[in-house]
Amino acid sequence: MTDSKNRTNSILVQGSILAIASFISRLVGLIYRVPLTAIIGKTGNDYYGTAYSVYSILLIISSYSLPLAVSKLVSTRVAQGEMKNARKMFRGAMLFALISGGTAGTILFAFADVFAGWLQTPLAAIALRVLAPVLLVTAIVGVFRGFFQGMRTMIPTAVSQIIEQIANAVVSVLAAYFLFSYGAKVGAVLGNSEFGAAYGAAGGTLGTATGCFAALIFMFILYMMYKKTFNRKLRKDHTHKEESIGQVFHIILITVIPVILSTTLYNITSLVEMYIFKNVAVAQEYPVREISEWWGVYNGEFLVLQNVPISIASAMASTSVPALSASYAEGDRKGVRSQIRSVTRFIMAISFPCMVGLMVLSQPLMVLLFGDADPISGKMLFYGALAVPFYSLSTLSNGILQGIDKMKIPVRNAALTIIFHVLMLLVLMVVFHMNIFAVVIANIFNGLFLTILNDLSVKRYSGVRLNIKKTYLIPLLSAVIMGAFVYLAYFVVDYIVGITAVSVLIATLVGLFSYFVLIIKLKGITEDELYRFPKGGTLIALARKMHLL
Questions:
Q1: Separation in Å, CA 39 to CA 43, 124, 193, 491
Q2: What is the pLDDT of residues 164-203, one digit of tens each?
Q3: What is the largest CA-CA distance in the chain?
Q4: Which of 76, 95, 137, 454 could bond 212 through an S-S bridge, CB–CB 3.0 to 4.6 Å?
Q5: Over the stretch 114-160, which tens digit does the pLDDT of each residue have?
């Protein structure tokens, strides 16, 4: 019982560290996208987003699953005291990363023109070629991160993510600025005004490459520093049965392939919806520039904001897998259920207020961050924010199912979801002529459908039963009431001051304060749970001073 409780606490503590790092990384990413968008424009965002969509699929196929898989395999062996086998898993995964990352990078570089042309954005090929070597580097970094996560510390991953994003932000903006200017000159000679945006987008992806190299250097140095400690643990390991390299590769493949399939299907939706949207919109004779700008807003503004809260769920999922795998391997089903309940409540307590906040401040945020006063952009964020809790839950449940060795279930659920998503998008585009809003609405229902399927699977295979009132209803009610305070605060301050940045900041602070009060007063979170949050002791002291506890 004590081990189970400690492991649950560890998930929340380590998950909180990784969640904060992911949030900071996303925040830095959001901040640098503001000047980047100002430099490359909506059309440049389209090239940038198109390149990333293709890159992301190859990343998923080649290496995205590695941190999760390596952490699962290493943590299971560490829990059983098999340090030598844990090292073999690490080395085998590194070899796999070199092969898969190198192959994917070669394919991306060689077929950049084909991919870009297929998605009606031929100039995105420039950015795609810049991203090609990143696939190899990311694969290697992923193995290092998975190793440390398997050793039950999220700090190396957290710090490396922040370093990566800061380097990315600085280089992206500078490179985009200089390359946009260069591209504009090239375009003037060739008679194509879009070259500036295309080269500017390539500058943005150059920042991604720089960030990944910075993360690799950091992780390698850290690993070399940790090697002495790890070697001491190896000397204490008296495992008689060591796994052969053949067994290691077999285990890695059977672990990685289901994760690859599920995450590929889970993320390929963006590529499929881009292909359908652009080709159907062209067939419906919308202006090509308008189509490009719509997608630029959707991919470069809306999704950037939507993914900030979802990144917290992704961090919690990454943290949950090693601990869940260890508990499951030990037959501790009660501990598994306790961990699932805790992380789910944590995610819901964060995703609901994020959803409401994005909805209430949709137009002001678009104006403040991207200088985009177009009502269409604000409506995209308003409606699209409804997907935040669904994608947060489905991301978490995906990790939970992998952690309890139900690797094939997420694959099946993702396959069913993408069929549903494609059919819905086609109906909304072809029958109802909803243009970019067809993508936004289909995105919401895609998240809902996947959440339902994953949730049913988690309940079936873990036996967990969640407290509906505490997990969903109280956080949602608290968030809705908070939304009313945020709405009122924004418009009162905006009427008096008339400065969007000040109005959004004060409204956000009002939202944080009111939600904190509401969720405690409505008993949506206990003192013990609050203590597990980052700076939990400070939060409890504050709550006591306010007579909330």
A1: 11, 16, 14, 30
A2: 999 999 999 999 999 999 999 988 888 888 899 999 999 9
A3: 74
A4: 137
A5: 999 888 889 999 999 999 999 999 999 999 998 998 887 878 888 89
Q: What token pair was written down for 360?
A: 């209430």
- For residue 488, give the H/E element and its range: helix 474-496
Q: What is the rounded distance in angstroms from the CA atom of residue 47 to the CA atom of residue 127?
A: 8
The tokens of 411 are what?
């694959």
What is the pLDDT at residue 367? 94
- Segment 273-300 mean pLDDT: 90
Sign of the CA dihedral with 217 first, then 223, 228, and 229 last: positive
Residue 115 one-letter amino acid: F
Neighbours of 367 (CB within 10 A): 18
Identify whether the C-beta of residue 278 lies closer than 8 Å to the C-beta of residue 47.
no
Comparing 320 with 471, which gets the higher pLDDT? 471
Q: What are 508-540's pLDDT values in tens digits?
A: 999 999 999 999 999 888 787 777 665 677 888
- d(C-alpha 17, C-alpha 5), whole Å: 18
Phi, psi (degrees; rounded to nearest 5) at 121: -140, 70
For helices 303-329 and 375-384, the axis angle rounded to 10 degrees is: 20
Q: Which residue has the tokens 């002529």?
A: 433
The number of residues in the chain equals 549
Cα separations (Å) of 438 from 90, 279, 417, 422, 435? Answer: 44, 14, 16, 11, 6
> Is 148 strand, coil or helix?
helix
Rounded Cα gap, residues 194 and 278, in angstroms? 18
What's the count of helices (H) and strands (E) in the chain, helices before strands?
22, 0
Which DSSP symbol is given to 122?
Answer: G
> How far, in Å, CA of 452 to CA of 448, rounded?
6
Separation between Cα atoms, residue 304 and residue 53, nearest integer Å: 13
Q: How far apart are CA 117 and CA 356, in angstroms?
A: 38
- Listing DSSP states for 174-232 in one string gives HHHHHHHHHHHHHHHHHT-TTHHHHHHHHHHHHHHHHHHHHHHHHHHHHHHHHHHHHHH
DSSP state of 414: H
* Measured distance between the N- and C-terminal CA atoms of the chain, rounded to whole angstroms: 27
**What sign does the dihedral 345-347-353-356 (CA atoms) show?**
negative
DSSP per-residue letters across 312-348: HHHHHHHHHHHHHHHHHHTT-HHHHHHHHHHHHHHHH
- Closest residue by Cα to residue 44 from 309, 313, 300, 368: 300
Q: What mean pLDDT is predicted for residues 68-83?
A: 82
pLDDT higher than 50, residue 1: no
Q: What distances in angstroms separate CA 176 from CA 152, 179, 187, one per listed residue?
A: 38, 5, 15
Are 63 and 142 a contacting pair, CB within 8 Å? yes
